[in-house]
Each structure stands twice: as structure tokens, then as C-alpha cells.
Fold each of these.
Amino acid sequence: MTQKPNPLSTIPVSGPIPAHLARSVIEETLRSAILDGRLPCGTALRQQDLADLFGVSRMPVREALRQLEAQSLLHVVAHKGAVVAPLVEGDAAETYALRILLESEALRLSIPLLDDKDFAEAARYIDDLEIQTDYAEIGRLNRLFHMTLYRKAPNRRLLKLVEGGLWEEERFLRFNLEAMGLGKLSQEDHRDLLRAAQARDIALTVTKLENHLNRGVEVITRYLNSLEPQGKKSST
């Protein structure tokens, strides 16, 4: 019988990790492996296996897994432990409805505290998105653009939830953006969003964000529906 390859074998670890950096190194290494598909959906990540791989105790591993769970990249499943989350969590429309609520509130709280440096950084991300052709990088830049507008919100718990949704979207876009043809379509939305934020028009900026996310969920839902088997479609 052919033995299934161990997904952890795709993760290179060079040399001992300093104790004070262990959690962040493990978190970043596993996040990259999840985002680029080396750790596929459904992969179980056992604490002891990871501790052995990185040459550390289980404590920093546990902390890293907790952070990745907060970013919606992992789920904790009974009898399996931490498992790499699916690309789409449940109903896309429900997911985006929640994102609209959370991101609108973060934007509302953040806009009065944003400064020219924040706006310039957001504009650079848009410029980079305009010329970027690598779909993994497009997903990353999209996340960074949105977080630049949200990050001044003083509610840190809210920001963690918002960022978790953006990590989930980045991962989905990495694997599906080319097929969806979304790469160039979102930049005018981003520029309109930035202009409204620079004008400090909170109501208009939130409305533009809601419209932007609603357009996104329409395209994603249409794309996901196109992937369903014909038999399943006809039965719904």
C-alpha cells in the first residue's frame, strides 16, 4: 500500500528557533503553508507533531494555532484537534453579510482617526493592485488595503474579527481569483472608497463599502453556483 505523503514534509525549518520568537515563527510559517495550499483543507495539525517539527515545546505551538484559529484559517474539531479550514465557510452570502456589519463598524470608528500617511499607504496598495498579475499577491494587497482603512478603530476585538474575515477572503481569492476574473474589477471601488474616506464623509464611505462587498458576494455566489453539479442545482 502506498503511504500518503505527510503535508508537514512540505514545511522547511532551518535551525533552532529562539524561544522568544517561537510562537510568531510557527504562526507565520503555518499561515504561509495554508495560504499557498501546502497544507490543504481538512489537514489535521497535531501539536506534538508540530512541536517535533519546529524543535520547541507544545506551548508556542498551542499559541500559534490559537492565533490561526482566530484568523479563520483553522478550526478545532473534536478528536482531531486543529484542522485547516475549508476555503468557503458555509453560505457565502451569510459570510459577507457578517463581514459587512463588522467592517462597516470598524470603518466608521476608524475614519476620524486616519491621517495623510494612512491615506497615502492605502493609495499605494491600490496602485500596486492595478499592475499586479500574481493572484496570491492580489489577495494579500486587497487585505492590506482594507485593513489600512480599518486599523485605527479603537475596538481591538472588533479588528481581530474583521482581520479574520479578510484572511479567509485572501485564502479563497488565491485559489479562485483567476477563474472568477475579479482582478481588475475592484479597483474603481477601492478608489471611490478611499476618496470618500479622505473627505471624512463617514456615511458615504460606509455606503460605498457596503456596495463594494455586496458586489463581491454576488460574483462569488455566482461563481460557486457555477461549480455545483447539475443534479444538485436542479434539486434545490
Note: DSSP finds ten helices and three strands in the chain.
Amino acid sequence: MIRLLFIYVSFCFITCSKTATPSTEKKEITEKVNQLYSQYGKSNEAVYNQPIPDDLFSPDLKKTLQNAINASKADIEKVKKSDHPDEKPLIFEGAIFSSLYEGYTAYKIQSMDIHNASAQVLVRFEYNMTSPTVSWTDTIHLVERDGSWKIDNITFDSIGNSKDLKTRMKEFVQSTR
């Protein structure tokens, strides 16, 4: 009898904890997306002026971003010390975390697909500073590491000139060489 009670309680505990997990995951993933676009959405200056947070990006994406930032800063210094310091150094131009160069005026999470330790979030963007308004959808890829969700890449919509964020950053580093 006690054994059956233990099995029943264990089953209830496992079932209840699994039903609460998706909403907790969705909440944390939503917070990461909002953190990304509130911290880096409007200006590329934030990328240059503050450390890349460990809690927002996966180690692989953080390394890729840091390599690109270091390459840009090195080119800025190289141009300053050159015979032509008025030349334009290689810097991040346009919105680097969005498909559209001009950035966005609004965004909304459209959907979320979570499978084990990975998630894809479709984010619908709008840029209304032109007529007609431009709309597009980017896909943010997240991975769960050490109990926390982290952004691992962004696949850009076809309106952009890059396939994804990692590729864009690696191409940027290559252009500085």
C-alpha cells in the first residue's frame, strides 16, 4: 500500500512539474529576446561600449561577437595611426541583430518552438519610418546551458543581406584582414 502511494505521489510530482516547465521556459525565453532588443536593438554603440553578457549569449555566439568587436576595434586603431586617419574604419553599420539595415520600430514574438535544450523564436519586426511600412520575420535560436536559455544565433529574413548572425560576424572579421 505504501509502495503504491509512493508511486502515485511520484507520478503526480513528475506530471505536475512537467506541465509547469513549458510556461517557465517560455517566460525565460521571452525575457532573453526582450533583453536582446532592449539592450542592443536601437544602436550598435552598445556592442562597443559594454561587455558581452554571459547570461544572454551562448559561449559560441559570444566568442563570435567578441572576435568581430575586437577586429573592428583593431581596425579603428589601425586607421587612427595610419597616414590617412580620416579614412573610415571597418565598424558595425546598420542593425546587427536584425535583417533590415535601418533596424526596427517595433517587434513582437510571433511564436516559440521548444524542443529539449533548443528553441526557435519567430520575431515579427516592423519599420514604419518609410512608406510603405516594412515588415519581416527573423528566427532567434536559443540553447539551454546550465539551466539557463541563451541566444545562439539569429537567422535573418530574406530582406537582409546575410543568412544569419554568426555568418555575418565571421564575414565581418574576414573583411578586416
Note: The helical segments are 2-40, 45-49, 59-80, 165-175.
Amino acid sequence: MGAVKVIINKELKVAFNSLLIYIAYTAFLCVTGFVCWFSGKNIFSSGQASLSNLFNVFYWTLFFLIPALTMKSISEERKDGTFELLFSKPIKTWQLIMGKFFAILLQVVICLALTLPYYITIASLGNVDHAVGFCGYLGLILVCGCYISIGMFASSLTPNTIVAFFITFAIEIGFVVLFEFIAELWGSGFMAALFTYLSIGEHFDAIPRGVIDTKDLIYFISVIIIFLALARHYICKNRF
């Protein structure tokens, strides 16, 4: 685990010495702040202080933010030719992947921590269930873990960061929109149930309401493991 910690520290140092992370944070807070407080569909549009509306705004904003954070994770290493230098050290491929994954996840957690004033404001204006608030943030972190693993897989496919961004975005659309749409087309039966299960929204929707189901946790962990394994496969494939 020592190598993983070194990679995490290195990735965080690089990220926070770059202007991109501050632009991403600023854009996230501006978009969520506007939608939450000033838009026609603000969090009080239902007539009450709603945590579910708050987490829904975060959910969709992170959908667009994560590809920007992950697009350079592996692509840039391939483009700059630094893989050879990394693997000349006693670092295994899985350690590299886990280090980069947790570094990006920590960046997202920090981003979510910056939204705590939103949560505190809502809590001060009405009665909120703090357990539901905890579940909402946990659900967002799990969803982000899936997006990050997808982004790292996409980044492992190409040295072009822009291409990696759009591949990530396309796969996200599949999990968030397309699978649910296909399930509705089937209506009922095995195929409808299958595509419903594959939809990220199906597993996220209940968590901000305080319902944590084992099958949802298994789903998120499985998606993360599968895409990180695919990323590892393509990294190993391109080392030779």
C-alpha cells in the first residue's frame, strides 16, 4: 500500500498545482449554486427545503464534471511517454490504477465538502433528517466512483485526452440514460429488468431517501471493479 499512497500524493500534488482543478471546482459551485438557489427549479420550488432536490443537482453536475477530471489520468501518461519511467520503479499496474483512482475520488470528495454550506443552510431553514443527508453524500461518492472508473478505462484506450473525455461521456450516457430508455421500451420481462438493473439511476435514486440496499452497494462496487480491471488490461496491453 506504500506505493499506492505515494501515487495518491503525487497525483494530488499535480492536480492542485494545476489550474484545471480550480476551474472545475469553480464551475461546479457556480452551476450548483445557481440551480439550487436562483433557478426556476430551485430547491424550494416544491414548497419545502428538500435534500433530494439538492442531491439531484449534484448528481447531474458531477455527471459532466467527472470526465474532465479523469480524461488525463492515463492518456497523458501515454502521450508523454512516462509509463516507461513509472514501471521502471517497483510499482505494479494495479497500484498505479488504485493510486490514480483514489486521488481523483479524493478530489471529488473535497468538491462535495465545499457544498456543505448548502446543506447547512437547508438544515437551518427546516427540519432535515441528517441520516438521509449522510446517505445522499454516500450515494454521490459511490456514483462518482463508477464515473471515475469509467473515465480511467476510457483514458486507457487513447493518448488523446479529448477523445477520452467523449468516450467517458458516451459510456456515462449509456449507464444513466440509455439503459433506462431501453428498459422502458421493453416494458416488462427479463430484458426490461436487466436494463433497469444496469441503470445507475435505478441504484442511486433510493439512497438519497435514506434507503441503502445491499444489491445497490454490490452494483456500484461491481461497476468500479469491472472498469478498473478493463483499464488495467489496456494499460498492460500497451506496455509491450
Note: Residues 3 and 90 are 8 Å apart (CA to CA).
Amino acid sequence: MQIDTSSPVMVTGATGYVAGWIVKELLEAGLTVHAPVRNPDATAKVQHLIDFAEASSGDIKLFKADLLKDGSYAEAMKSCSVVFHTASPFTVRVKDPQKELIDPAVNGTRNVLEQASQTESVKRVVLTSSCAAIYTDAADCAAAPNGILTEEVWNTTASLDYQPYSYSKTLAERAAWDIAKQQSNWDLVVLNPSLVIGPALNSNPTSESFSIVKQLGDGTLKAGAPRAGFGVVDVRDLAQAHVAAAFTPEAEGRHIISGHNTDLLELGLALRDRFASDYPLPRRALPKWLVWLVAPMSGLPRKFVSLNVNVAWKADNSKGKRVFGQRYRPLKDSMEDMFQQLVDRGVFKKS
């Protein structure tokens, strides 16, 4: 893969979990990265990006921008050849899904891509979508062709009332494709990652992924973990996929980026060799009937339990491997690196 460093690129949400690794990859490749952030003067949030630039052959320029403000990205996008749009909320604990999930995801995508249509230098937009735009529950896999999710499948089961995060990602990606079809200056390449795991580069990651892994080590699941099926991908592998999506000329359409078909218990078991003696990791699978019974007390809809627990999740990641030469590191390595970071931050107490 040949990377053109003659023009800058822009990364939205540059201080975020996934975007941070993308920025690092781009800087190490020698690119100038334009990073629009809410407050460029908030040193604690942007210092790690500045440090990456100083240690690399690339350069970073910070810009003030607001995801929901029209025209906010014009200055940052000026002269950029590639736009990476990663900024979108990832949380399942919301009081107002429309305001906290749908509006930022959809309107933010529209603002960024419509600005790309007004910026002559932009030739490619790489959108960080999600496998959530393909499915809602593991049970959806059974309804997919041959029982496996592919890039041809779209999420039709999420709604504002059920799994609104998945609904937000579906609406945002559909909006992106609509905008892409209305112009001919740039092409759209979409990445659909599964649950992202692995270490963060910023000191206080807020991704929902860390909330899930925290429960594996803080005693919440010491009695056992449900075998709730989903896929996972290491954040470092995902960042490399973004760079490939930007600079692989033949890349087009959607790409499932997922390293492993797994479940919640398996994530916990991947940590046992290294951490079981010190932390209350889950040792066994909780029976589905028990998970269903206590679901309301855990904030889980019983519908979610029925459609995900003891249901295998399967996705076809062959397109990313074929087009990008994508490779995936072992699940155990990703989980151990992520868990160790939480240990180092003092998140857990030893048993």
C-alpha cells in the first residue's frame, strides 16, 4: 500500500478511543493530520496527540469544531484529501436516545460529509460505522444468508425504543450513503467494526467497551458471565484498517472489520491465565434462565437476553482481508493489554 503524504488528512473525534490510534498510525506514516476538537486548548485531552506528532515524522494541527454546528469543519477540512469521520457517541446508558444518540450520530455525519462535498480537495471519505448497522441481536445472524452476517445485510430490527445505539449507527450510515450518491467529487469507504477492544491511548477512555471489560474484573460477574454472542476487534487492527481504507484505490463499499466471533464469558476466560489469581474473573457460564430472571435488575431488557444469550454470533470478515490484507491479533493479547491498562489505572481491587 502506497500512502500519499503530499496533502493533509482530517480525523473527526481525534481524542477518541478509535480515532487516537488512527491519528497515531497516520502520523507514523508521515502525514499531516488536521484534528478538529471541541477545545484545542484543553491540554489534558490533546497532549497525547501532540506527543505522537513530536515522536513521528508527521505533523498535527488542532482546530476548534462542533460536531452539530453547520460549517464547523470547513477550516479543518481545507486542503485535505481524505476525511476520516469517527466521531459518534458509543453508549447504551442514555435517558434521551434521540438527543444523546440519534442526533449526534446522524446530524454529525451530515455536517461532516456535506462539508466534504463543498471541499474540492477531498477525494475520499472513510466512515467509521459499525456492525450495529448490520445487526441488532445475535439472533439476527440466523436470518442472514447462510446464517452469517455480510456487508450486504442491513439492520432492520433496532429502533428508538430497542437498542437505540444500533439504530443510530444504522441511520447515520444510511445518511452517509445518501449524501455520497448526491455528489461525484469524493468516494465513500465504510468500515463496520464489531465491539472494539484493546488499550486506549488517552488516559481516561470513555468507550462502552471499557465499561464491559470493567465488569469482568470488578466482581460484577464473579458468579459467572452469560454467553452473549458478539464479535470483537482490536482497536490497533481497526486503526490499520482505516489507513488501508484511505489509501487502497480499489476499496469501495462496506467492510466488516471483526477479528473474532465470541461471547462475554470467552472474554473473561481469555484473562484467566494472567489475572485470575488477583481478580474475581468469571469462571463459568450463567444459565440463560437466570440471566433472563435478573435482567431487569441489571438494566437489561429480557428481549435482549432471549435474542443474544446462548446465541452464536457469526460474521464474514473476508472482504477486509482480501481488499486491505487485514490481519487480526489473538483475542487473548487484546484482552490482556486492555485489562492491564485498567489495572494500571487502579480501576480494580485485588481479590
Note: Residues 97-117 form the longest helix (21 residues).
